[in-house]
Design a protein that fits this description.
Elements: H1 2-14, H2 19-26, H3 30-37, H4 45-55, H5 59-62, H6 85-94, H7 102-118
Helix pairs in contact: 2-3
């Protein structure tokens, strides 16, 4: 758990928060934060999830499984579906309907998204 202790301390220090202030934000005590950061006890999972959400990092990062704060699975790309109405509406909004290239641009974008989703 030494890596977890180092990561959570690094995260707190990266935004210049005191242990007391972080404890208040996280609903913990300053003494418990101190114990977690000094690897004297293990932080509970709900607190680790809070760290991940608050600092916008992955649990993979907190657990030292990766050096990238966004984690190992961050670039997941869901498959594109022609039936996805929200995406269709977004694409429709992106292009001026009066443009003579409108249909070609929309189709090119749909093809690009389709091919990108298949590579997952």
């Amino acid at each position: 758990m030494k890596e977890v202790a180092e990561k959570i301390k690094l995260l707190r220090e990266s935004v210049n928060l005191s242990q007391a202030k972080l404890a208040t934000l996280a609903g913990a005590t300053q003494s418990s934060i101190n114990r977690y950061e000094n690897d004297q006890s293990a932080p509970p999972l709900p607190l680790l999830v809070w760290y991940a959400d608050y600092f916008d990092v992955s649990l993979d990062y907190i657990f030292g499984r990766t050096d990238k704060p966004e984690g190992r699975l961050y670039d997941y790309k869901p498959k594109f579906s022609e039936e996805n109405q929200q995406l269709r509406q977004f694409i429709e909004m992106c292009f001026d309907p009066k443009s003579p290239m409108n249909d070609k641009l929309k189709q090119a974008l749909i093809e690009m998204i389709s091919k990108g989703g298949d590579s997952v």
